[in-house]
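Regression check, pyridoxal-5'-phosphate case 380:
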Amino acid sequence: MGNSKIYLSPPHMGNNELRNIQQAFAANWIAPAGPDITAFEQNIEQYLGNSIYAAALNSGSAALHLALILLNVRRGDEVICQSFTFAASANPIMYLGATPIFVDSEPYSWNICPNSLEDAIKSRLAMGKAPKAIIAVDLYGMPYNANAVNAIALRYGIPVIEDSAEALGSTYNGQRCGTLGDIGILSFNGNKIITTSAGGALLVKNRQYKERALHLATQAKDNYPYYHHTDIGYNYRMSNICAGIGRGQMEVLESHINARREVNTFYREIFDGINGITFQSEPDKKYFSNYWLTAITVDAAVAGTDIHELMKALADDNIESRYLWKPLHTQPVYKEAPYYGNAVCEGLFESGLCVPSGSGLTDDERARIAEAIKKGIGKN
Ligand SMILES: *Cc1c(COP(=O)(O)O)cnc(C)c1O
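Current build output:
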């Protein structure tokens, strides 16, 4: 018998999620409506502060789609998006028939590079195209460089959508991720720092936006005694059952953040003294990452190993690891999209690895991981 699998980022339930589901069953709130949804939204709004309105939806992707609709993105428009991210960050641009304009990362935060962003904006403006929005991502929990990026966005009058799917609990200048842009989104997919099994939230700064988003998310039924529609709607609302899980998960969010950060420290100790290993790290005191995933880059010329050897050594003991996001401008499906950058994200993709970062990692699992990494070093 082999060892049981250690996953990259498995769900981690607290004590009250199941109780909330049982109460929802008892009251027959088995629908995308019910008291847990409102309560979960209030939990999120309280946590984020900053006069945020949260709309609980059935995925982070749905939240991004609605964010673009709220900003009036239409067919033929252009939307700037960080290239170094999961495809879900950009796919909603395509749902609307708009064009993504991809931008490189900066080497510090690994998120959207302010210089390349400004290059992209100037270049598109020179072609007569004013970008309708900027999607900045908080990758692996690391906040984007909000001071620089927001200043550029403001200068050109372009709203920022913060894709904070991976960064609930992270902060920048003491302000919570998800609230750094004009609109934010969260994901509660099974692999995220807290999960509702599947789910997401749209974060907006006025009540009208939230009401409009919920209208669109519930099939855009107008206020008539019969079904009457003036907009195309979507079926994007969160289920009450999922919201019950979310309420339980909000109770353990703080301990999950502490655990993920502690896992990050564990890896820094394992790799201590090994040259050529670089961690994704908080660039300065403004940044506080939830370290949703611990991510490293390996300089194969000096480390005595490379990411493929490390991945193999981990897989040999049934331990999951994952390459960093393949930049979207290098994806076949996005090969026509313009790109502005200096090959920073390409370099990260070629040299980077995410290692198991679950908040429930046991001492036994840590010992196995440490042992596998030891075997993976010096194998180049
Ligand atoms: C998970 C994720 C999404 C999508 O969220 P879903 O809830 O899975 O639809 C979007 N962007 C990033 C960066 C993500 O990690």
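Comparison notes: The chain has a mean pLDDT of 97. The longest helix spans residues 240-270. No diff flagged against the previous build.
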